[in-house]
Amino acid sequence: MCAAAPSVTVISGCAIATVDAQASEYPTGHLVVEGGRIVEVGAGPAHPSWRERADRWVDGTGLLATPGFVNTHHHLYQWITRGYAQDETLFGWLTSLYPVWAGIDEETVEAAAAANLGWMALSGTTLTTDHHYVFPQAGGDVLGATIEGARTIGLRFHPTRGSMDLGTSSGGLPPESVVQKTDVALAATEAAIARWHDPSPDSMLQIAVAPCSPFSVTKDLMTGAAEIARAHGARMHTHLCETLDEEAFCLEKYGRKPGEYVEDLGWLGPDVWFAHVVWPTTEDIARFAATGTAVAHCPTSNARLGSGIAPVADMLAAGVPVGLGVDGSASNESGRMDEELHQALLVARLRGGSTSMSARQVLAMATMGGARVLGRQQDLGSLEDGKLADIALWRVDGVSGVDITDPVCALVFGTRSPLELLLVGGVPIVEHEQLVRADIGDLAARSGAASAMLAKRAGR
Ligand SMILES: [Zn+2]
Prior knowledge:
Largest sheet: 9 strands, mixed
Bound molecules: zinc ion
Helix content: 25-40%
Distance between the termini: 38 Å
Structural class: alpha/beta
Shape: globular
């Protein structure tokens, strides 16, 4: 997917937050990238002998290197339906938006995904997932359209083949216009894995399996999806414990709380991650920790919908793997990962006090935590010898950070830090706050037209 990486890139003189197991940091350090992987990271400037071998030498003065951010929950298509249902809770927001989403197709989704992924790259993201679960009959290959968007921008991509089969006529929340038959959804899920899933260590594209939520999916789809995922070594994802309305739905329809419901269906394990988990019980946290079941924490979306504040400090303390997620752009209204770090820090402290979450814990969730959630911790998530060169280089000596002695504090506590360079597998994707492979103006024009077309189709 990527153009060939320059054979040797040296970044010398930057601060480095490695996010390795020892949380090693260097006030002045260097990184050497060769063939798409990190071959050297350490204190002080790079050895002068690299000068002869370097195809590119980056002066890191005033910059902070971190691992590229990993976004663990998203709905890219929602980029073109921002601004709707501004004062609704989750269920009201969904029922307002389902009819609009019923109008999506390949063309609108590709425009939405490319613009959204461009925005994500500009905020330091090198790997993102996407949870796509709306497949209108006349919509064409909308999952393929998101993959095309990722190729346009150059990000590492873990899309999921989502699904919904529990419409209003069967007691579910979504209208029939946006649900599929169970067997159709399962067959398409298996086909998506066969077509796209690349499990190799350097993989740019992996497919996960993702029935949407307890109130939009039947038990048969949940268990069938798990069988397919586990037969093919793909990961499993769904929304869980997002709101108290969801809990009430599960108690009424299944006689179980959400965490008990998914345990009954075999949906726990190190290959499973849940989005949100705002309302877990104490037993849920213990069962997630014991089974290695992971969580995508989405503080902005939870705040926008008034869903609540997830007990992230408690989950981390219990040993639950937690990553950060922006969630879909229609409940985030932006989708910048750097902003999500900021929000994660603040909401955790609103819930648990000033010592309940540190800047380093947030940075770890956004990088190594996310890599673990998506099963890429062997190759991604930290700046270490041998890992893939997915690196963000932030300017922290500008007006936003010049008086802050701790560059990690400047990045997480402070306002946006300019992104000087973003590498995915050693390949530049962002240079000096500009996308390398796409023009942000063109992306915005196409997504704006798609948004207008969708509103017109929905009679809005
Ligand atoms: Zn979501």
